[in-house]
Amino acid sequence: MAEFLCPENSLSGSLPSELGRLTGIQELVLSMNSFTGSLPNELGQLTSMTLLEIYRNSLNGSIPSELGQLTSMEELKMSRNAFTGSLPTHIGLLTNMTLLEIHRNSLNGSIPSELGWLTSIEELKMSRNAFTGSLPTQLGQLTNMTEFSCYRNSLYGSIPSEPGQLSKITSLNLRENSLSGSLPTQIGLLTQLTELSLRSNSLDGPLPSEIGLLTQLSGLWVNDCFFSGAFPSEIGLMESLQILNLRNNSFSGLVISELGQLGNLQELDLAVSPPSLRGPFPFDSLPGSLGYLNISGSPGLVGSIPEELCFLQKSSCSYGDDAQCYIDFDCSSLLCGCDCDC
Questions:
Q1: Which Pfam families match (predicted)?
Q2: Which domains does the chain have, with CATH numbers?
């Protein structure tokens, strides 16, 4: 038997150790069932297997190190279970693997440096676990990776410069950790990035001007951190930006006029804390796609409000999962020439 495909049924109970006898199997798909218990060590005998799908079950216990014997493995999908313990270092032996999904479990401990051996990996999804420690510098060796998500863990320490070698990456999500220090200038080398989320960390210092090199970026979330200093004017070069969220940082100084060049914006949040932004309102006219604008707590802004801003709440637009429009700003120092309640 080369394939055993049984997803999305109502199967329950534990996985039998006899699965280890299917030595010729290449694809084993048991996802979206109600299996419980631990993974049998005997799965490590299925050395011809290229695909193992067991996501969305209720499996628990530790991930057996015997999985490191599955050297033909290309896709390993184990998300949305209740696995505990550390990620075995033997996972690094699966050098043919292009996809590893272990998100939404209860895995803990540090991220093993042996993941740097997975040089064929394209998608690495480790979010919503309890991983601790720092990001291993060896992740910079994964030069074929296009997506890395490790949000909502307990990672700390600085973001290493080595991930600047990930020239193919399009999505990097490290939000909701405890990462600290400055954002390395090597971030500007990730020129294929379309989504970068670093929100809800302890990152500080100025945003490096190299961030303006990310001209493919459509979403940038650095809100709820401790970034400070002036906005880099290079943000105006990021003409693909649709979402820019800088809320709850300590940026200061002039609001850069270059924001007015971002004609594709759908969502813009500049509500900094403490309020310290000043200068002219950056838009002579608003992008037609804009559906969310938050510049609340910015009494230092001066100038005139574009007339269409007054009617933003009445326009028809959508973003995220909800069709709605939103505006929140302090216009005490701004001039409004339209008939509204400003």
A1: LRR_1, LRR_14
A2: 202-342 (3.80.10.10)
Q: Helices then strands (H, E): number in the chain?
A: 0, 29
pLDDT tens digits, residue range 319-339? Answer: 333 334 445 555 544 445 555
- State pTM to two decimals: 0.89
Closest CA to 76 of 58, 46, 98: 98
CA distance 241 to 211: 12
In sequence order, which residues have a C-beta less than 8 Å from that of residue 49 and are 6 or more positions away? 25, 26, 27, 28, 70, 72, 73
| CA-based nearest residue to 207, from 191, 192, 189, 188 | 188
- Sorted by sequence, the CB contacts under 8 Å of residue 4 that are 6+ apart come out as 22, 25, 27, 28, 29, 30
How many Å apart are CA 327 and CA 147, to the nearest integer? 32
Determine contact, residues 92/69, Cβ cutoff 8 Å: no
Q: Report how far residue 206's alpha carbon sits from residue 199's, in angstroms, rounded to the nearest whole number.
A: 15
- The Cα–Cα gap between 74 and 94 comes to 8
Task: Please report, rounded to a whole number, the percentage of residues in the chain having pLDDT higher than 70.
Answer: 84
Of 137, 204, 207, whose CA–CA distance to 166 is shortest?
Answer: 137
**Interior angle at CA 319, CA 305 and CA 227, nearest 5:** 70
CB 33 within 8 A of CB 58: no
Residue that has been written with the tokens 């979403």 in this structure: 219
pLDDT score, position 160: 94
> How far apart, in Å, are the Cα atoms of 295 and each of 246, 252, 331, 335?
10, 13, 9, 15
> What mean pLDDT do residues 220-226 have?
97
Banded model confidence at residue 314, pLDDT cuts 50, 70, 90: very low
Tell me the average pLDDT across 75-100.
98
Local structure of residue 319 (DSSP, 8 states): B
* Maximum Cα interatomic distance, the chain, rounded to a whole number of Å: 78
